[in-house]
Amino acid sequence: MKPTIEMITAELRKLSTAEKREVFPRFFKAGKGEYGEGDRFLGVTVPNVRSVARLHKDIALADIQELMLSEWHEARLCALLIMVEKRKKKDEVLRRQLFELYLSLTARINNWDLVDLSCRFIVGEYLLDKSHDILYRLARSPLLWDNRIAIVSTYAFIRKGQLEDTYALGDLMMHHTHDLMHKAIGWMLREAGKRDPERLYDYVLSHRAEMPRTMLRYAIEKFSPQERSILMRRT
């Protein structure tokens, strides 16, 4: 292990707590047969991981790649948050390199928090003025985390008022088998609805019979009780 990786891991260890080490494996479903099976946790909160990431935001991309290979969940999160810090630089070459590195490591971005805290910035913001085709390839991937990256990356588009991909990807993955995707799609639809409530209402009204219930509940969370009551009906 490189000295830089050892240093970052040691700093994370100092910020760990016994309570979080006990709770995190259950919270992130790391048990046998669960989506995070086998993951290991130091027990460090996101704000503390973020503080370490900011201290090491100038490390080389090769060091980030090695940190992403860590057995420790928080070390991988730290690597991703370092990438998020780096993408703030007005350097298009660097942003492309981060984007490509990120997509080469999606098998290691293997829990919902790792995806949600990084993809909007590294993937979504990079693609704002480029083709979005890669998101549709990720949506068709057999890897759950690729699928979640595809939909959550559209958060960057939503914030710019671009809603088409959120709805199109919602259509494409409407019948996904995993609850994590039902939650993610519903979440992004809800965010799109903040920009255009009428469009979301009409979309849910026309898809409510086929939408998984979790997705539906997430999507309509901001509507009035009366509107939610109507939309929760199957017919």
Automatic annotation (TrEMBL):
Domain of life, per lineage: Bacteria
Protein name per its UniProtKB record: DNA alkylation repair enzyme
